[in-house]
Every structure is written in C-alpha cells, then in structure tokens.
Specification:
alpha/beta, globular, TIM Barrel, 13 helices, 8-stranded parallel beta sheet, binds adenine, binds zinc ion
C-alpha cells in the first residue's frame, strides 16, 4: 500500500561519514586490522554519551576511511539507504579534512571516487547527489581555509556549496569569514551549522557575518522573535533535523520540537536526518514522527519537499527535472 511516507523526498542535510552504516565501518576496520570496537554497543550500533562524545565516536569511525575506494564504498552504501526511503535528491556534506587531510591533490582523488559512486547510484536508483564541502569548526580557522581552498578549486556541477559542521561552541562564526568569502567568490552557495548548540546569537553571526542562505538546524532562532523576522525577510531556509536534535538531547521528543512553530511563523523549514545510523533515524522515520506529533500529511510533506528543492544548491536544469518528479511520484 502506498502511503504519504513513501513519497519522493528531498534531503539537504546529510553528513556522508555520519551516514556510514556501522556494518560497513566494521568491515573496513576488519580489512585494515583497525580496532574501533569501543564505538559500538552490543547490538553493533554506534554508542555515545553526549554531543562531544558523539563527535569523538564519529571521528573514530571515520578514521578507518583512509583511501578513495573507501569513500566510493561509503557513497554507494549511503545512497542505497537514502533511495530506499524515497530520497530523489540529496546534498551530502563532504569534508576534505577526512579525505587526505584537506590537501588539494588527494582531495581531488577522493572526490572523483565519490562522484563515480554517485553517478552509478543515480543510474541504479535515480537518486541525484550533490556535494557541499564542509569544514570542521573545532579543527580551527586555519584548517577551514584549506577546506575552503579544496572547495573553491573543485567548485562546479557536483560541488555546489560550502558549509561548516562540528562543535558550534568552538570560537565564533566570525572566525571563519575568510573561508566563507573564498568559497562564495568561487561561486559556491553557503550554509553553516547554527542554532543547534550556539543559540540565536550564533544564528545572527551566521546570517550577518558569514552571509549564509541556509542554516544547518537553526532551531534555536525560535528564542529570538526579532531575528526570526530577519531570517524570514531574507528567505533563509532551515535544514531541520528533528531526530538528531532529540537523539542529542536538545529536545525531549518531536512534540516539544520547534519545527511546527517555525513553520507556522513562516520560516522555510525542511527535514533531514543529519547522521541517520548514529541517531537511529531515516527519512521515513522522520516523516512518521512528524505526522504523529503534528498530524502532517501528504500536503504538508509535499510543500516541505518543494521548499527544500527551491533551496537546493544545484543548477536550475537539475531542479526543473526533480520538480517534475516531485509532482509525478
Ligand atoms: N557533524 C555531524 N553531525 C553534526 C551535528 N549534528 N552538528 C555538528 N556537526 C556535525
Ligand atoms: Zn549536521
């Protein structure tokens, strides 16, 4: 039986390494004789205590991915999963820091392996993937500049954006202006994690200092009505990841999550999974939870997907084709 949860979906916020199936990470660790057992529970799921520990576990899992072929396998596995949940377009955060330590030569090789995998997955499942090069905030502004250079040098049809993830409480958004300006000058569109942990002030800096057009999470903007008006006036889109926020303890459950309030206020909200196996989520689970908490149905989800596609960083031709697929699913 067809339900509203089977519908075609657009996802804007997915960390490629954060989407790594634990089985794949264990398999690669086994092949490389790397001991990373401590990051899994008895059922084989990733296990962590809090956000800081999550970042450490994430980096340990990622540490087994040491060559382009690993990223080829990762990309294929992640897109297989996404396609299972009806995703037809996904923008994945790709971090040069995890792909040859943000050096341009190795980065090009990793990127071409990722792109090859994406092309094959598109042929197999019809899923379209684009990349947003992402610096890691707690690695500091100098590393971010290297990531931005990788982004600027490989900007094009596939790499269409630049962003920042990592610990939002490390430094301030402003410390990364140089990198965001470099990426923007290379024609890349901008997003950053803001208002996940850093409060409304972090969102303010993201909007006014980094000049992003999308916010990773953005949910804490709810605490500042004046800033909310500003982000609405600027037509900024929020990459909301309710399951991630709940798994990390920012909100106790979907009902308490501000996504519905933000939407009613007029914010462009979209829904993504962030790091699905870490947070025991996927796009279907996200839709089911939102439907239960707020009685969202086909109409709301269709609107959500159109908002997401409007805010996507890909070229217009790709968007036009995908809009047709959203209408005819
Ligand atoms: N990297 C992967 N997931 C993240 C999150 N939720 N916040 C910041 N950085 C991340
Ligand atoms: Zn994220």
């Amino acid at each position: 039986m067809q339900t509203e949860f089977d519908m075609h979906k657009v996802e804007l916020h997915l960390h490629l390494e954060g989407a790594a199936p634990p089985t794949l990470i264990r398999q690669i660790a086994h092949e490389k004789k790397a001991d990373i057992d401590g990051i899994f529970d008895e059922q084989g799921h990733y296990v962590f205590r809090d956000f800081e520990h999550f970042l450490a576990v994430y980096e340990t899992a990622t540490s087994v991915l040491t060559e382009p072929m690993d990223f080829y396998r990762l990309t294929r596995a992640v897109l297989d999963q996404s396609a299972t949940h009806g995703v037809i377009y996904t923008e994945a955060f790709l971090s040069p820091d995890f792909c040859g330590q943000a050096q341009l030569g190795p980065w090009r090789e990793y990127l071409s392996a990722i792109q090859e995998a994406a092309q094959e997955s598109e042929k197999k499942h019809g899923i379209v993937m684009k990349g947003i090069v992402t610096c890691i905030r707690h690695f500091g502004p100098d590393k971010a500049k290297k990531a931005a250079l990788c982004a600027a040098e490989t900007a094009g049809d596939f790499i269409c954006g630049f962003g920042m993830g990592g610990a939002e409480t490390f430094g301030v958004q402003e410390d990364y202006i140089y990198s965001f300006d470099m990426a923007q000058e290379a024609g890349l569109r901008l997003t950053t994690h803001a208002g996940e942990w850093g409060g409304a002030e972090s969102v303010r800096q993201a909007v006014f200092d980094l000049k992003v057009e999308r916010l990773g999470h953005g949910v804490q903007t709810i605490d500042d009505p004046q800033l909310l008006d500003e982000v609405i006036a600027r037509d900024i889109t929020f990459e909301v990841c309710p399951g991630s926020n709940i798994a990390l303890g920012i909100y106790p459950d979907t009902h308490s999550h501000p996504i519905e309030k933000l939407r009613n206020r007029g914010v462009n909200v979209t829904v993504s999974t962030d790091d699905p196996p870490f947070f025991n989520t996927d796009m279907t689970k996200e839709y089911v939870a939102l439907s239960r908490a707020f009685s969202w149905g086909k109409e709301e989800f269709t609107a959500l997907n159109k908002t997401a596609l409007n805010a996507a960083f890909c070229d217009k031709a790709t968007k036009d084709t995908l809009f047709k697929r959203l209408d005819t699913e």
